[in-house]
Every structure is written in structure tokens, then in C-alpha cells.
Amino acid sequence: MSFAGVPIDFILFALTLAGVALFHHHTLAVALTGLAAIALFKLGFGDFGGVAGVPGLWKLLGHEWVTVANLLGLLLGFALLSDHFERSGLPALLPRFLPDDWKGGFCLLLLVFVLSSFLDNIAAAMIGGSMAAVLYRRRVHIGFLAGIVAASNAGGSGSVVGDTTTTMMWIAGVRPGQVFEAYAAAVTAMLIFGVFAARQQHALQPIMKDNPEGASVDSARLGIVAVILLAAMGANIFFNLRDASVLDRVPVIGIAVWLAIGLTSAWRRPTWSLLPGAFRGSMFLLALVMCAAMMPVQKLPAASWQTALGLGFVSAIFDNIPLTALALRQGGYDWGFLAYAVGFGGSMVWFGSSAGVALANMYPEARSVGAWLKAGWHIALAYVIGFFVLLAVLGWHPDAPVAPSAPSHTTSP
């Protein structure tokens, strides 16, 4: 069924996204209402990947449950991790090493960028948010929050272990060097939005110039942070190298994170009271992920650099996992361009990536689409400039199709 040539599914999804943008104080209710409306419409009048009714819905859930479980495990687990990091006392010692002016904020964003090249982008963003909370006495500009999310997404876009989409490409046969090319665009974008975001933050609240008196590091909490991060990285790399199909069947990365949290809880007790708030934010993202999974997207436009550029804007509101899977099945892309587009593009809206949703759980004021777009205008500018720098420097060199199908497991959208 369609209206004016547009499938009703897409209209319902668009209304859901509009509701999120307009009613940013009720995002969870809007997302769950949209999910229910789309599911009921497809049960009554549509299908799920060609299978109608409850069997189709059950098949979809069977396909997506690993994605959902991994995301939930990571978002909740990294909420506890960021609290451990903040309470470790290390952020309070950073003024000793960071410049006192706007360049201190730029260095913080650069640190997030580097961390995300080998860590999950959710973890990198939340660590960045924890550092910002201390260094700026919790007065953080929304433009700087957008910069933290953008730095985490840009940093992971050129590494096959830095983002779920690039890991999917790696499993499908794309060489790490092809993905690494994305850094030509990502570094360019970082230099642009990083300067604007750091200056916005400095104008609102200058960085802490001196360490608080008596500041010290709790090495046990830092050790717990390291154990949790190593568990996530180790599970991801181990199964990708040994048997990547396991990642499609079992949410091993989320399980690894929670095993690490459980084993280290006797060392330092996590702040369990953070979980209810983190759970509500996580349910919002998972509702949008499931809405996107139910959209009847079977094919992308013909592969070209123009299509890749457009996918970056689409990924700001649409889950980038199915977009990447479709691109891998279709083939014909220059994978460095695609990695940058779908990885960094989600930074343009706060709910466009799991890193943005995770950071919005820490800073609820970031949940306004209007405020994010107004304060984070430099993200879209940096995205476009970075893309065309990549095009000018390396050129568009598409590959043939690399696989008949693509894995769907995820650590973050």
C-alpha cells in the first residue's frame, strides 16, 4: 500500500522521526508508538521481508535479535564504564596536559577520535562525555557534544575494528587498506568541526586550568575500564578471525562486556542506579533500529560517489547497518567512501548513531534535533568537505561485488 507513490511504511517511519524531532521530551514514547504503528500496519496490510503476518514478524525478530541484544548490552555496559572512568579521577588530572584555551577542547576531541579507531564508538563517545563533564564542570555546549559524537564516528570510519559497518565490510572481503582510505576524509572533517566545536565550548565554559587540589587516580577503576574495553575488543576480533558466523547467531560482544562487569564488580562496585536511565535511552534507539529493519528497502540506487554521498545524509536518520548490508550485496562501491559516509554521516543528528544516543543519555539537553542541528551545523559542513577532499585526493575506484550476502551482526549502528 502506498500514498502518492510512497509506501505507507515509509510515511509512518517519517512521522515517527518527525515526532522525535518535535517532541524531544517524549522521545521514547514517540519511538515506541511509531514502532507499534508500523508493526500493526505490516501485520494487517504488508509483510516482513516477503513473509506476511505473525510468521514474518517472528522471522524478522529472529534475524534482528542479536543486533538488539548487542546494542542493549553495550549501551548499558558502557554507561557503567563511563561512570568508572569519571570516578577514577583521571579526567581531573587532564588539565596538567591539555592547553588552557580552546585548543584544550580540540585535543579532547582528537583523543576521542584516536580512541575510536580501536575501541567501540559508543565507548569512545562516553569516555569523551565523562572527560567533558569534569573539565568543563558539566557546562557543555551542544555543539561540543555533537563534536564528541562526530569524533567517535569519524575515528572509527577508517578502521575495520572501529565501527560495526567497517567490520561488516572486512568480513565480506573488503581489505583493511580499502577502509583505511576513509581517514583522508575523516581527518579533514575532524580538523573542521573540531575547531568550531572547541571554540563554541570555550565561549560557553573555558576548560579547567588547574587540577583540583588533592586529585588522584583510582587505579582500580581504571583497571576495570581497561578490562571491559579489552573484553569487547577481544570478543570482536577473536570471532571475526576465527568464525565470524558466530557473531550473527550470538550477541557475544555484549555478553563479553557484561561478563567483564560481573567479574570486576567485587573490585569496585558499579553504580547500578545508572541503569534505569540508560535502559530508557537504549529502548529509544532499539525502537528506531527495529522501525528501520521493517522498512521495505530491497535495493539502493546504482553505486556511484553521488549515491555514497547521499547515504551519509540518509544514515543520519536511518540505521546504517542495513544500508551497509545492501551496499555489500549490490557491490560496485569504493569502500573507503562508503565507510566514511555511513560511519560519519550519523553524527549530523543526535539519534543518527548509537554513540549519539549514548551521549544523550548522559546529557539529556542534547535530545533536541533543532538544538543539535543549530549548534552542530559544522558537522554537516565537515562531512561534505571531507567527502570531496577524499574524492579529489584518491578518486572514486569502485570494486565489483564482494559477496552475495552480508552479515548483519552489530555493535553499534
From TrEMBL:
The keyword Aminoacyl-tRNA synthetase does not apply. One of its GO terms (molecular function) is antiporter activity. The chain crosses the membrane at residues 6-23, 28-45, 65-85, 106-136, 142-161, 182-199, 219-239, 246-267, 279-297, 309-328, 340-363, 375-396. Keywords: Membrane, Transmembrane, Transmembrane helix. The keyword Nucleotide-binding does not apply. GO terms for biological process: sodium ion transport. InterPro entries: NhaD-like. This is Citrate transporter. It comes from Caenimonas aquaedulcis. The lineage of its organism: Bacteria, Pseudomonadati, Pseudomonadota, Betaproteobacteria, Burkholderiales.
